Amino acid sequence: MLELVNRGYVYRAIPISDEVETYLRQCFGADRKMYNLHVAYLYDYLEKNDYQIGDKLPSLKKMGMPTVSAFKKQAVSDDHVAYLYLVDAFASNEAKQHFNKAVTAFNKIAYKKQYKKAALKRQKTLGIEPTFRDLKGMPKFHSRKGSKSSYTTFNQNGNIYIEDDILYLPSAQKSSVKVVGLKLHTHRPLPHGSKIKNVTVTINTKGQFDVSICVEFPKEIPSIGIPNRILGLDYSQSHFFVDSEGKKANYPHYYRKMKERLAKEQRILSGRVKGSNRWEKQRLLVSRLQNKVVNQRKDWLHKKSYALANQYDMIVVENIDLRAIGQNKHYAKNQQDNGFGTFRLYIKYKLEQQGKYYVKAPKNFASTQLCSTCSHKNTVLKGNVAVREWDCPSCGAHLDRDINAAFNLKQYGKYFTKDEILPQIVVA
Ligand SMILES: [Zn+2]
Fold first, then answer.
1. 371 Cα–ligand 1 center, Å
2. Which among 117, 191, 221, 249 is placed 20 to 30 Å from 47, CA to CA?
3. What total number of domains does the chain contain?
């Protein structure tokens, strides 16, 4: 079956001239400036309207937030920032979307009345009372010194295209830069028949440019028919996962070591004077390590999910609420490390790409409590994570908690095949 698929491709890129580089930096600046205008307006509004800690932020409409074009006009007359007119219009529009998202995200946690650590420290050592600006999640000013800058632009009537490894982006009517091109370092070409939807240009702390190109392309999805090779995956706190064949994920040690190193360097950073040269140097080191940790983890998750998706026709996972686990104090840390949610996503799309099956067992399916030999339900295990091995009170089978659960998931996949997939295949 031919289907339209969306995917993002990231390439290292070099602006084709100094003028283009300047133009791109202006776009980043416009995005930041527009965002900060929104934040400034918000703070002003909250002060004038006697905002109470714990309250949600009002909608942009209720605040009377000016439109993007009104902000542009105002910014030009106030501080002569004419460049808001000289850049890609999307760069400023996106800022509004981002701001809106930040408001929504804050409103979800507003009731917690949590202050940032730094503000609490200030209160303790200097006696400075925290204000609403110090609330966790409150939209804040984006600084030029931030870790990276970016802007996103959208394809309209083919004004974004690639020719001879150069990516061409739209310019602004009033800009003197007419051709905005970036030479791509294409290690992997875009799929055949790709349509570019949008592009995000990013500059990192080292001054390197990256472009993330989001494309849509037609892809032939094969039909594999009835799945033969089925695997159950049980999420495991200590092993990441255990599968129905008794194999453990072998979460790599190097990653854990990197995390330890990162924690150490972060402690050093928090001990230095903010804004000082030594602080700046340490901040760069921490940001490099953070990047490395993120990349290592992604790389491992991709490789592991790729291998499984190739080997099996169907993979069955629990419908476990990972966020609930993440909020549990004892597990929170480990959970963040693990990224099992991301892993599930990777598996899902890698399977579906091949016309294979990704199945989430329903919430009421007690994969842990069922005996995989006789189907007896052992409710003693419910919520009791300490029991790693158990004997079935009904049939006496000796069971490993994780492997038993994974095996039950595999069994569920088999039933699912009979009830859900087979009829469809027969009808078609
Ligand atoms: Zn049993």
1. 5
2. 117
3. 3
